[in-house]
Amino acid sequence: MNQIKHVDEWKEHIFPALISKKDELVLMGYSEVTIEEIWNCLKHHVWKNNEKKKLYEVVQDVLHLPSHTYMNYLTLNVLQSDDELANTVASLTDLLPNEKVQKD
Fold first, then answer.
1. Residue 71 to residue 31: CA distance in whole angstroms
2. What is the pTM of this model?
3. Is residue 56, in this structure, part of any structural domain at all?
4. Does 97 reside within a domain?
5. Is residue 102 in some structural domain?
6. Tens-place pLDDT, residues 14-25
7. Least C-beta-crowded within 10 Å: which of 40, 52, 55, 57?
């Protein structure tokens, strides 16, 4: 297949490669890995600026995804979630009445 498509259009065709990558990461000790996380890592990290690919390119990217790239993606997501949580808490505290808290 020499067609160039958006990577989302290839997802169902490359499911065996995604399962293989998941199994590989589990064997390396990443027991909580999911296929959806692998896919999202590829979309947001590897294919960030180029989401139109040929089928063999998508399969190659899946099978050659380094574990450190996957772990960096997860780490950045956690840090981003922490920042979003901090911003939400800050926004909520702005809504509270302005009371002085006494310290002992």
1. 12
2. 0.74
3. yes
4. no
5. no
6. 999 999 999 999
7. 52
